Amino acid sequence: MIWQELRWRSGVELGAIKLEGTHTWRRGTLGVTVDGIDTTALGVMIPTALQGLGLLLFRPKLRSTPAHSGS
Fold first, then answer.
1. Quick check: is 59 in a domain?
2. In this structure, are residues 60 and 27 in contact, taking their beta carbons and an 8 Å threshold?
3. Residue 4 belongs to some domain of the structure
4. By the 8 A CB rule, do 32 and 15 touch?
5. Of 18, 14, 47, 43, nearest to 5 (Cα)?
6. Does 70 fall in a domain?
7. Structural domain span for residue 33
8. Which of 27, 30, 26, 32 is nearest to 17 (CA)?
9. Could you tell me the mean pLDDT of each successive run of 10 residues in the chain, 71 residues long?
């Protein structure tokens, strides 16, 4: 998994991604543990790691979207 390479020398483990909320108010939550203790990703990850994680999560969606022609 790519995260194993990105987290080099880090005690941060990624857990399950869950979709929460109802109707038009939905969000994704990411389970995270630091040295075996449950916490939140935003509290322990530096901004560049969060950005990289976002790219990893949404890259498959970007690749599966058909290209639009100019016509």
1. yes
2. no
3. no
4. yes
5. 14
6. no
7. 10-19+27-64
8. 30
9. 70 83 84 85 78 74 57 52
